[in-house]
Amino acid sequence: MSNPLTTLLQNRDWLLADGATGTNLFNMGLSAGDPPELWNVDHPDRIRALYAGAVDAGSDLFLTNTFGGNASRLKLHNAQSRVFELNKLGAELGREVADKVTDRKVIVAGSVGPTGDIMAPMGTLTFDLAVEMFHEQAEGLKAGGADVAWVETISAFEEFAAASKAFALADLPWCGTMSFDTAGRTMMGITTKDMVRKTLKLENPPVAFGANCGVGASDLLRTVQGLATEHPQHPLIAKGNAGIPKYHDGHIHYDGTPELMADYACLARDSGAKIIGGCCGTTPEHLKAMRTALEERPRTDAPSHEAIAAALGGFSSASDGTDGNAPKARSTKRRRHPAA
Prior knowledge:
Strand order of the largest sheet: 1-10-7-6-5-4-3-2
Distance between the termini: 33 Å
Strand content: 5-15%
Radius of gyration: 18 Å
Structural class: alpha/beta
Number of helices: 13
Shape: globular
Number of strands: 10
């Protein structure tokens, strides 16, 4: 399928994605527990500023403010009937910002987060219902002008597959990332090998796939290397957190400096990632440093785990999830929160 993102990937060695939606909106005044998607209606100027912050910092791609824009999550705020509206607005605001850029193509990626529900038989969420919810969201994103759908922070492959089917129904190309944060596995026990093997068997495979969020930048790069080992030809995504979260003065702060994220960006590129961005804690200041480093530092061979740890800090576990020493898959799915 021909689409703007595929074209960019064919002509570029790497693309810079955006940073954290939550962190930057909290800095603008969003209160914890409030649905950021409602800001697409109530504070469109702030959402334009969110998008413009990434673009001005050098991002080639940014995600819309629609992570929690599915019926299940919006129901918590009595807004389940506004799925199409909020997703369309989120994408329209992104389209406004992207189309103002004249010196390069900027991709508007429609963010789709997990439903937050537990899959059957342990819970009430069936595969078909998940497809229905993701499809409703995708149609809003498409109507608003999103170039691609972007499902992220997924831990259960059944949910990943449901999103794939939903995007096919909407005729919208897509990308997808899972979050690996329990000894190299997702919360549901998926390994990098599992992800590659199952993703490539989907009837509607993604334009690019990879990892986001998780524990820290070091662990995420080990995950990216695992994905690259399994299928080095497919475009891979790396969106790691800006350091480690620390609680200070009633708020969570990430300790990753722009300099650390610049190192991370180049290590991600050299580890096999083609789309490189940040997740929780990543601000435009981090993105500027990442862009400069990617442009100025030459590509090298894939770094060793020792080199990654020396640059970014140690790994959270000895296992990368593929050696039999990590937790096994579970049959339930926990709710995840949007990138903070």
